[in-house]
Design goal:
EC 2.1.1.177; five-stranded parallel β-sheet; tRNA_m1G_MTases_N; 21% strand; globular; alpha/beta; Alpha/beta_knot_MTases; single chain; methyltransferase; 5 strands; Alpha/beta knot; transferase
Amino acid sequence: MTIKLIAIGKTDSTELQYLISNYSSRLRHYVKFELVIIPDLKKSKNLSETEQKRKEGEALLKLVSPSDALVLLDEKGKQFTSIEFSQLLQKRMNSGLKNLILVIGGPYGFSEEVYKRATQKIGLSKMTFSHQMVRLFIIEQLYRGFTILKNEPYHHQ
């Protein structure tokens, strides 16, 4: 299985870039992993929220194949413990899924078209985090999930 994380806009913080790169590298020891960045829309200040979500959604959906599982990182999504999340990963791998695509939306969230295409929504917390931080959090949780599945000592219960 390949896991692809798609996010809108670049990460400005060099510290976050370093940590994201570090955990991405660790994660690749367990699974094929790819981080795809959709560039920020040009002249987005001239767009309404709905129009911005629509344009970001179009760019996002171009990267998704019909057979891909599309999982949105959404504040209203189901929340998991790290162990439950690792079990979800195992279930997806056992199903023969080729591509698991996780998506971090833009500043206003997702368009209706993206919500309709999604197979699942996952919430990381009831708190709101910056889109930059969410990248690090989900990559670290993916890494943690695979260490749990391999019974490695990274996660402590």
